[in-house]
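Re: folding output
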Amino acid sequence: MSATLEALTLNLQESLGDRLKSLKSAHGEVTVEVDAADYLDVMLRLRDTASLSFEELIDLCGVDYSAYGNVARQGRRFAVVTHLLSITRNWRLRVRCFAEDDDFPSVPSITPVWNSADWFEREAFDLYGIVFPGHSDLRRILTDYGFVGHPFRKDFPVSGYLEMRYDPDQQRVIYQPVTIEPREITPRIVREATYGNVDHA
């Protein structure tokens, strides 16, 4: 571990203490995990503590861990992952926070800490269904207002539930159940063990 990452790790442990559920360093990056109950307080400390000074939020996204790495996961399903940058100290940090309830995932909004989280949180809400209490304008940002479900969830069907098309008789756009028939998209070379074998007998 480099001296910079070692200093960051020590500062995180000193400033956040038992609020850290885990702290890992891999591939030149530090990742911490915190509980949803501590999330907002931790983010304020990361920004305002002089020894950390994470002034900038680079990214925030939702993650569905239900089949992460093609393995069924034990434990909570949805998480919010945030990437922070300290310009003052020239270091980065990844913060992961799992939502407590898989049926209604919810993580506090950090827009009061970094207002740049606004559209990122709306995207996580739209695509994963993660709710951010404290967000002033939480609504869909990428899908249509009539869209059903959250398309980045692992159990969302590839073809969706509804399709939208223009109806020339009604002279307007309408929604209807999906009419796309499922088809086999795995190449034959993968799904047939004997594909390509030539019998020279």
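--- second protein (sequence, then structure) ---
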Amino acid sequence: MKGGDGSLGWDTWAPYERIIITAAGPNIPESCLQQLAPGGIIVMPVGTKEKQVLQVLSLTPEGKWISQTADPVKFVPLIGEQGW
């Protein structure tokens, strides 16, 4: 178990093949993007505090980012250095 600023991810065990962030932010934190392995996927609710969409980012083995958005959602805000 780890306590701390969740907006910074957890670089101790990085890189990760999958990252799911279950709090909303204005964007996906850079620290979490850096912790994703090539071929990995990160999912996070992104938008305003009142309205978000699920953003799905994939990092290809070649290092290219592919972005998709899914359904509208409403999550609690991500608090921390790279959140709100």
